[in-house]
From TrEMBL:
Family label: Belongs to the LDH/MDH superfamily. MDH type 1 family.
Superkingdom, natural source: Eukaryota
Quaternary data: Homodimer.
Protein name: Malate dehydrogenase
Class of the enzyme per the UniProt entry, highest EC level: oxidoreductase
Residue ranges occupied by any Lactate/malate dehydrogenase C-terminal domain in the UniProt entry: 151-327
EC number: 1.1.1.37
SUPFAM superfamilies reported in the protein's UniProt record: LDH C-terminal domain-like, NAD(P)-binding Rossmann-fold domains
Listed NCBIfam families: MDH_euk_gproteo (TIGR01772)
GO cellular component: cytosol
Molecular function as annotated in GO: L-malate dehydrogenase (NAD+) activity
Residues annotated as the enzyme's active site: H183 (proton acceptor)
Length: 333
């Protein structure tokens, strides 16, 4: 098996450090390039370079063409760069700073790793993914099969919280619940009716469960009390995402995940428009992964009336966030 290079942008941060640790343990990885604007990334890289795994680990900052060095040859780039929330903030409040960071990193990827798979973690994901897509399009290197908004943490939370509600807190890995829409509050749409195995959760218990999945991020922001947002659970989710993608692309193990993607140019993407009743270019959907990245978008499936209401409640905010990200991306051309 030939080993590939991964790059983590924002590798010195709260997510970046544990995500780099987990990435270095992926069996497909031969090199992990840790990029961050903060020089402490050299220490993180030195630390991880002592692991006795297959991966070589190197750290880079902006000095000495660091972004170019980090990205050149990378086949997958994960981006947890940017500022996190503090109590009282929405993810959208991060847009002003993080949109520029994403634009700059997307430009770097277009220049130095144009065929890389990209996983965008930086918030607000509902807008930063459009910033990435517009920047890559303007550079002529956009491939819709390779750009993912990482919403895996919502799926991780759904499994865990459902397991707790049904009184089986140790059996979270067994519960697979699709979560679609976007990655922010009401735009997060858990499809509990499609849980495998099936669960019977209704009434106030269902309302509370949905609210907890939608606002799980706030729970962590509040508990951290000014020291940031979810980092370790996000790194865990980010590694799940990376493992699934690399297994499909390099390991011959296709699978289905949910991710926030650009629909118009993906096989099956058009049909989502009819299912949601509105033309949104971006939506978190189930995608079939294969050798090229996203092979096709799968239908949302049967929603019950409760889920149809969640969907309708999600659309205005999601639409606004997309317009904002696309507008920013286009204004930079
Ligand atoms: P953090 O502040 O701990 O780390 C961010 C890192 O990014 C820092 O080390 C910083 O130096 C670096 N950075 C800033 N600008 C950069 C640039 N231009 N290039 C490279 N690195 C740069 O923050 P964190 O807790 O790791 O969160 C990072 C982002 O991830 C936030 O926007 C947060 O909201 C988001 N997040 C997303 C999810 C999700 O589910 N998608 C979950 C949790 C957090
Ligand atoms: C999360 O869902 O935990 C992240 O998006 C971080 C946040 O700001 O809540």
């Amino acid at each position: 098996m030939s080993l590939i290079k991964a790059a983590i942008c924002g590798a010195g941060g709260g997510i970046g450090q544990p995500l780099s640790l987990l990435t270095a343990q992926n069996p497909h990885i031969g090199e992990v390039a840790l990029f961050d604007v903060a020089p402490s990334v050299y220490g993180v890289a030195a630390d991880l370079s002592h692991l006795d795994g297959t991966a070589v680990v190197n750290g880079y900052t902006k000095d000495n063409d660091g972004l170019k060095q980090a990205l050149t040859g990378a086949k997958i780039v994960i981006i947890p760069a940017g500022v996190p929330r503090k109590p009282g903030m929405t993810r959208d409040d991060l847009f002003k700073i993080n949109a520029s960071i994403c634009r700059d990193l997307a430009t770097g990827i277009a220049d130095y790793a144009p065929d890389a798979i990209i996983g965008v973690v930086s918030n607000p994901v509902n807008s930063t993914v459009p910033v990435f897509v517009e920047t890559l399009k303007s550079k002529g290197v956009f491939d819709p099969k390779k750009v993912f908004g990482v919403t895996t943490l919502d799926i991780v939370r759904a499994s865990k919280f459902v397991a707790e509600v049904v009184g089986k807190p140790n059996q979270a890995p067994q519960y697979k619940i699709p979560v679609v829409g976007g990655h922010s509050g009401k735009t997060i749409i858990p499809l509990i009716s499609q849980s495998k195995p099936a669960v019977d959760i209704q009434g106030e218990t269902l309302d509370k469960l949905i609210n907890r999945i939608q606002f799980g991020g706030d729970e962590v922001v509040k508990a951290k009390d000014g020291a940031g947002s979810a980092t370790l659970s996000m790194a865990y989710a980010g590694a799940k995402f990376l493992n699934a993608v690399l297994d499909a692309v390099y390991g011959g193990k296709p699978s289905v995940i949910q991710s926030y993607v650009y629909l118009p140019e993906l096989q099956g993407g058009d049909s989502i428009k009819n299912e949601i009743g509105k033309e949104l270019a971006y939506f978190s959907v189930s995608v079939q992964l294969g050798k090229q990245g996203i092979e096709k978008v799968l239908p949302l499936g049967q929603l019950n009336d409760y889920e149809k209401r969640l969907l309708q409640d999600a659309l205005p905010e999601l639409d606004q966030s997309i317009v904002k990200g696309v507008g920013f991306g286009k204004s930079q051309l």
